[in-house]
Every structure is written in structure tokens, then in C-alpha cells.
């Protein structure tokens, strides 16, 4: 149920990190970011940059590929970073407690297609695609239906 969509080209990992930090300044309890893209698209880099910018003290941000979920103590709630690539059924999403976290924590979900129909309607979806022009260039397409995201994405689209 996408009501809005905007795309942004970025040229480097630094640009990706800056974009993540900008978005981080606008997320809070109950916000969910769904990160789509092929392996190597930059999902984890984006998530690490966003999480690092929210933490009061720098810490290692490992990929949750094998742990499935990593949690961090954020300023006002927990930050859940999940990688659903290895999940084989929707039941595992519920076992992780991820569905409950959507209501009260900041959640970043890599491979959100594994959520099927339990993906939150209020989420901001980021589709990260290789740009093709330069090795590090990406196009990020943002999709959302919750009007909460509109001012931020209007600002990002004009940067």
C-alpha cells in the first residue's frame, strides 16, 4: 500500500552514511525502516550508520546475518537491526519478537520480503539499487504511506 515514492541517487558510501544519519535524526520509538536490495547493495552499511548515529557511545555494529537480530540501547528505546535472509518461514519472524518490536522500538529490517503481510503499514521502505554508472553509486527509492515520512522525504529529495 504505497502512497508516496521518491528516488535519490547517491555516489559513495560516505553519501550513504550521511543519508542514514539524516534519517536517524527523524526516527523514534515505533518507527520501522525496511531495507531492500541485492547482496552488496549497502543495506548493512546504511543500518550501521543509522544505528551508530543514535547510540550515546560508539560501539561495534556487527551484521545480524547469523544472529538474525541485534539490539542496541538507543536514546529513548531499543534499536532492533534484523537480517531475515536466512529465515525459512514467517513463524520465525514471530519467534524473534520482531512483530511486537514494530510498535515500540526502532526497527531496521534487511530482506523485509520475508515479513510477507506482517510488514508494518507505517514503515519507510528503502529500495537500494546499484546505479550502474560508478562502482559505489546507488539509487535509493523510498516508498511510504504514513504521512509522518513526507516532510523528511521532501527535504531529502531536494538535497
What does this 3D model show about the protein?
By secondary structure, the chain is an alpha/beta fold. The protein has five helices and seven strands. It has a seven-stranded mixed β-sheet with strand order 1-7-6-2-5-4-3, sandwiched between helices. A hairpin with a 7-residue loop joins strand 6 and strand 7 (138-144). Helix 1 crosses helix 2 (43-54). The protein is globular and about 40 Å long. The protein starts with a strand and ends with a helix. The model has no long low-confidence stretch (mean pLDDT 93).
Helix content: 25-40%
Query: Rg from C-alpha positions?
Result: 15 Å
Q: Using DSSP, what is the number of strands?
A: 7
Largest sheet composition: 7 strands, mixed
Which keywords apply here?
159 residues; alpha/beta; 7 strands; seven-stranded mixed sheet; single chain; 26% strand
Short summary:
By secondary structure, this protein is α/β, with parallel strands linked by helices.
Per-chain topology:
Blueprint: E1 4-10, H1 13-24, E2 32-36, H2 43-54, E3 69-73, E4 78-83, H3 90-96, H4 98-104, E5 106-110, E6 124-130, E7 138-144, H5 150-157
Parallel strand pairs: 2-5, 2-6, 4-5
Antiparallel strand pairs: 1-7, 3-4, 6-7
Helix pairs in contact: 1-2
Amino acid at each position: 500500500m504505497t502512497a508516496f515514492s521518491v528516488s535519490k541517487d547517491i555516489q559513495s558510501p560516505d553519501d550513504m552514511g550521511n543519508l542514514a544519519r539524516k534519517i536517524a535524526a527523524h526516527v523514534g520509538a515505533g518507527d520501522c525502516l525496511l531495507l531492500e536490495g541485492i547482496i552488496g547493495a549497502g543495506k548493512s552499511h546504511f543500518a550501521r550508520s543509522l544505528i551508530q548515529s543514535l547510540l550515546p557511545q560508539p560501539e561495534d555494529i556487527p551484521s545480524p546475518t547469523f544472529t538474525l537480530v541485534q539490539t542496541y540501547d538507543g536514546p529513548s528505546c531499543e534499536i532492533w537491526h534484523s537480517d531475515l535472509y536466512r529465515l525459512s518461514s514467517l513463524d520465525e519472524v514471530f519467534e524473534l519478537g520482531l512483530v511486537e518490536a514494530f510498535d515500540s522500538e526502532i526497527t531496521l529490517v534487511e530482506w523485509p520480503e520475508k515479513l510477507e503481510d506482517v510488514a508494518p503499514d507505517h514503515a519507510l521502505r528503502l529500495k537500494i539499487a546499484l546505479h550502474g554508472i560508478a562502482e559505489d553509486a546507488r539509487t535509493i527509492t523510498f516508498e511510504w504511506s504514513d504521512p509522518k515520512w513526507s516532510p523528511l522525504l521532501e527535504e531529502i529529495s531536494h538535497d
